Amino acid sequence: MLYLVATPIGNLADITLRAIDTLKRCDYILCEDTRHSHFLLNHYGIRTPLKSLHKFNEAMRKESVLNDLKKGLHIALISDAGMPAICDPGSRIVSACRDKELEVTIIPGPCAFISALALSGWEIDRFQFVGFLPKSQGKLEKQLKALLSYDGTSIAYETPKRLLKTLSALVSLQPNIQVAIARELTKIHEELKVGTPEQLFTYYSNYPPRGEIVLLLERRDEAPAPMNEQELIERIKKILRNKEISLSQAIRLVAQENGLSRKKLYEIAHLALGTNDC
Ligand code: SAM
Question: Could you tell me which CATH number the domain at 113-217 has?
Answer without folding.
Answer: 3.30.950.10
